[in-house]
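Forum: Protein Structure Q&A
Topic: Joint prediction for protein chains with partners

I've read a bunch of threads here and the consensus seems to be that you should model interacting components together rather than docking separate models afterwards. I'd like to see that in practice. Below is the full input, 945 residues plus whatever partners are listed. Could one of the regulars post the assembled result?
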Amino acid sequence: MAHAHAVKRYSGLMDWLTTVDHKKIGILYLISGGFFFLIGGLEAILIRIQLWKPMNDFVSPDTYNELLTMHGTTMIFLAAMPIIFALMNAIVPLQIGARDVAFPFLNSLGFWTFFFGGVLLNISWFTSTGAPAAGWTSYVPLASPMYSEGQGVDFYVIGLQISGLGTLVGGINFLVTIINMRAPGMSFMRMPMFTWTAFITSALILFAFPALTVGLVALMFDRLFDGNFFDPSSGGNVVLWEHIFWIFGHPEVYILILPAFGIISEIVSTFSRKRLFGYSSMVFATVLIGFLGFMVWAHHMFTTGLGPVANSLFSIATMLIAVPTGIKIFNWLFTLWGGSITFTSANLFAIGFIPTFVMGGVTGVMLAAAPADFQYHDSYFVVAHFHYVIVGGLVLGLFAGLHYWWPKMFGRMLNEGLAKLTFWTFYIGFHLTFFVQHFLGLIGMPRRVYTYLDGQGFNGMNLVSTVGAILMGIGTIVFLINVAVTAAKPKNAPADPWVDGRTLEWSIPSPAPEYNFAQTPLVRGYDALWKEKMDGNKGMTPAEPLGPIHMPSPSILPFFMSLGLFIMGFGLMYHQWIFTGIGAALTFGCMFLRSVYDDHGFHIDPDELKDKGVKA
Amino acid sequence: MAQSQYDLMKLSISIMILVVVVVFAIAFYVLIRFRRRPGNDKIPVQVEGNHKLEIIWTVIPLILLVILGIPTIQTVFALAEDYSRDENAVVVKVTAHLYWWEFEYPQHGVVTAQELVIPTNAKIAIEAKTADVLHSFWIPALAGKIDTNPGGNVNRMFFEAPKPGIYYGKCAELCGPSHALMDFKVKAVEPASFENWVNAMKAPAQLPSDPAIAEVFENKCLSCHAVGELGGPAFPNLTGMGSRESVAGILLNTEEPKYENEGSTYENLYRWIQDPQAIKPGNAMPKVDLTEEELEGISRYLAELKLEGFNPAELEGNSVTNDDQEKQQ
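Posted by a regular:
Agreed with the consensus. Here's the joint model:
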């Protein structure tokens, strides 16, 4: 791209390392999140192979515990969260009519810290002491240096600490972006549902992740510097870790699922050609779920011995979440009611989501009844429940969103036939894998067991579950083939490839030019583009004359700041103080450079916009 | 205890099936009725919402939650009752270890391991704690679970066994490599048999009759384990080993072995002592340096170390081979 400006432009690899463009960062999040999703999926397949028959010895018990720990940690922190961030980055600024996020530099920093944190965590597989094996919850004393020797859990602590920084930074960025950068007329109650859920999720990140940070700092002191936070023999308390972890961990569940709710709302509305039913109650339900999500954490601890008062309160609070969630489900169904429904692949995933999520939701209410949870707790019933909400809910939502917004992100339409094949294999595989696990739990199979004895009635259902997992793997491979096939095709997706696009992202070319909107649009109502279509207008009314567009400069500093943290993490774990110093110097040096050099970015002139057409 | 949990589970599952059926019915109806037919390019009416409907699907779930919430709270408080000071209750102090269970009966002055013997129709008051990491005490067919916490943080629970039988017990909290193998057995017997068991447990210990084996047993086994009044308390108590249903919780004793983890008491003991790490990776018992004769002698001695006078007729035909495992509830 030739620009007649005194500004550094990079191409190739350097472009990706230095980019501060939210769309490119979205793609980076998608690629790395997708990569970790494949690793986490492979770990899941290995788990299911180990469990396909009783007393199997495919992997050792130690390896199995590493697999289950890394599967959970990777899927939550390194696959689900980044793919959510990928879609938020790719779409939210477009939906609110903004040219970028509020802090493009921070956006890049958030990505690179996540990336290096994730890489650090996964390097543990190649060390002599292996990956962490204390579960994704890392309960002490099991995770304490006494019972988890070697560096395994250190990788968990430091890796999550570094990638957690990225998430926190990203959350704050989106809060500010959505509050400050909306186009004229885009009031809060006109924001698309996906933007609303991104907003509430970011707020949850802001309040939940600091709890994790504090917990990890305490665990890090226990592990690296002989601290006593969680050592009962020195006055520490292990239940404290459970509280800290779940004060973060429960909101985390809503951080994950809310964006999926947003995606489903967009897709169901588009492909039934109808306005989202009960928009304001949807917004209200989202806010309420986010709020209640902070007061239910102890339902993960009913068997910890908190006593009947706490158990009752947390039971009731948890059950209450069913009400706003039910509102959402019925609003989706009544959006479809009276509509003109087309079954595109994106809509298949969205429609598949609704009954699946209801099943995950009702088992959630069952688990909320504390005395019954004394039975369900830590059994396969719980495994079935949370996979129904996270895979049947979130992952189906993410697949729906990816198929829906793929043309907007890449300018190419995914192949519908392959996409539908992905849907059916993944969907059937999912239900095969997890439906039977409800019953495994009910007949007494505990979770996190590397094997089970023969003759307990567990054999058949475990075999079904393994077959289902392999089918899910095939579905994922079909998706990858689809991506590869699509990448070889010409970039010719129209601006509004689904024809019935309702929101602002469909008013600009696919993929969006680097400045997004040549002229900031004027928003005249909810479903801004749909409103213009219905009023017979050809596109959005601009809110400003054509003029120079201010753009942020690319920068390599976020990459090196995160690399510094990565080096520092290794130095700390292995007590190599020189490396710790080098890493710290790199990070703080980059921060210093960022502070002293003013970079005002550059401008793209109006004539240049015309020359280049609209594609960036 | 299990019964009240089961009732609550039945109530909640009925409500949830109702919800699922309603949602599925609406979903299928909508998808079939409102699919776009070829040639139909109409724009549907853009409905903003409907207050009446929205109130209905807010209020009905709230009513369902009240129906479920009230018995939930009642059961929470009923199950939190502390029976440890009740004279009629049997108090058992449960201590979880990596990867075995210790059961102490303070009222009777008895300590045992891996096999919880209880009288039927009596309140069993559990006081659970751990000696190392978190575990969770679970007898699926009789009671829910309670975590075992370290540092003097004792958790209480009670349950009752309405009829005699042998029940499976499990650890339900990830505790390390052999978490999956941290099973125990519960023997519910008539109150009279329970008295016999307590008396038998207190009978004076008999060492192996062969003096050479007795010496090895004293030097190499009793340094950690106890038999009756002899030996140390740090590791599983072996009193009445020959009367137990399993070795190490997972090698099930039966004369008709069917699965890998089954064998006669002697075979199981031999297998275990020969290489404990192969059976339960990461457990604290080392491979003890024994000659073949010593290994056989000790295994035979332990297999024959039965509890005199404890022959509960009510458990006849209720062996603990895997196929007999009680389904939960």
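Residues 211-324 of chain B form a domain with the Immunoglobulin-like fold (CATH 2.60.40.420).
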